[in-house]
Amino acid sequence: MLSLIWSGVVTGCLYALGALGLVMIYKSSKVVNFSHGNLAGLSAFCVFGLTAGSLSWPWWFAVAVATVVALAVALLTWALLLPIVSRSDLTATIATVGVGLILQGTVLVFFGSDIVSLDLPIPQMSVKALGINVTSYDVTVVLSTLLLVGLLFIIVDGTRIGVAFRATASNPFASRVCGLSINRIHLFSWATGALLGVASALLIVPTTFLSPTAIESFMIQAFAAAVLGGFSSLPGTIIGGILVGILVNLFIYYVSSEFTNTFLLALILIALPLFPEGILSRRERTRA
Questions:
Q1: What is the dihedral of CA 24, 243, 117, 101, to 10 degrees?
Q2: Is-above-0.85 flag for pTM?
Q3: Residue 270's Cα: distance from chain center in Å?
Q4: CATH of segment(s) 2-118+130-274
Q5: Alpha carbon distance 140, 173 (integer Å)
Q6: What is d(CA 223, CA 276) in angstroms, rounded to the nearest whole number?
Q7: 160-170 and 136-158 helices, crossing angle to 10°
């Protein structure tokens, strides 16, 4: 049981990172970015393409290039949606589905439909404690999540752009009246969402495989985590991700992996009426 919970926590950290990217964008622009998983998948394929075959670039350099590509695509997506968001955030949300399909098609054109593997450049080690097998991959995921989440909270809580982001998320009209640049806040949230998506994709791929739809499927779990967080609370999203990771792990072990998506849908349907504003809504009602 402890080993199942531990592996669920590790996987939940990845769900939390993916969900935080969705929530950052939604908090500022009220757009649910359904192309989030496709963009993360494109960046992972960029790393694969640059490190495999005849190129054989250093892994970290390939990650830097893939990150630049992800940022460029995210900002281009925001620019394309800018005229739509001002009229209807629902229309903009639907438009992200089309963007996702374009990104998926781009992956198919440049990288094909083959299933490939992409590993992290870390030594393979493990240690047993309390019956739990803790691997170097587990430690990498947990430490990376702590580092990224800590950095995100420092930026959101302790910088001018972070305070402006919180103000815009709380009251866009009042923020605009006070002279804040809403477009600048949107740029910040879309860029941050893209970076979190890249990180989650590169960390999840070593445990499974890389295909044009693999990361998109992973983002279903991230979406469930965002729903548990109410799509408004960053701490709630983190807790939601870990809860989803543990619950999915237990479900797969005791029931079946074939009905994972059905279980996630049921979890979302149960969570929405119980926690319409997120699992931490009462505590965070006064916080943006």
A1: -40
A2: yes
A3: 22
A4: 1.10.3470
A5: 41
A6: 15
A7: 80
